[in-house]
Amino acid sequence: MSCGLLLISVATNIYLIAISRLILGITVGWLWGLPTVLIIEITPARIRGRVAALMEMFFISGIVYMAGCCQFAFTSYDVGDWRTIAMVNSFVGLVAFILVAV
Fold first, then answer.
1. What range does the domain containing 35 cover?
2. Rounded Cα gap, residues 27 and 22, in angstroms
3. How confident is the model over 7-36, as a mean pLDDT?
4. Residues 62, 32: Cα–Cα separation, whole Å
5. 8 A C-beta contact, residue 59 and residue 32
6. In terms of Cα–Cα distance, which of 31, 1, 12 is closest to 83?
7. For 20, which of 7, 34, 72, 92 could close a Cys bridge (C-beta 3.0–4.6 Å)?
8. Rounded distance, CA 26 to CA 17, Å?
9. Structure pTM?
């Protein structure tokens, strides 16, 4: 996901933006479904529904949290400074990847 966001932040034409969005779409599709299935497979049956609901809730909460952080952090920038927001979000994804890998 970080690769797609970094590509968007340095995109110079519409084709690079389209490729970046394709990469983001594929990775978000994987990140949305795959961990939920894996978590559901290893949890006991009695708490499986709650764990799945919490997992989906945390995905949405993270998206809303990052959108709020970017809204408050970049209010002084010009309207349409989407490149900076994409770059900041890509670094957050990279840090999350490193924390999970360690």
1. 2-101
2. 9
3. 82
4. 12
5. yes
6. 12
7. 7
8. 14
9. 0.57
Report the amino acid identity of residue 97: F
Cβ atoms of residues 87 and 6 within 8 Å: yes
3-state helix, strand, coil in the chain (%, to 5): 85, 0, 15
Task: Please report which confidence band the pLDDT of residue 77 belongs to, taking 50, 70 and 90 as the band edges.
Answer: low
Residue 83 structure tokens: 């490149």
- Domain count for the chain: 1
Burial class (CB within 10 angstroms; exposed 0-12, middle 13-18, buried 19+) of 85: buried
* 92 confidence band (pLDDT: 50, 70, 90): confident
Query: 63: closest CA among 102, 92, 30, 35?
Result: 92
46, two tokens: 């009695």
Count of residues making up the chain: 102
**Hey, is 76 helix, strand or coil?**
coil
Contact 54, 36 (CB under 8 A): no
Is residue 26 scored above 70 in pLDDT? yes
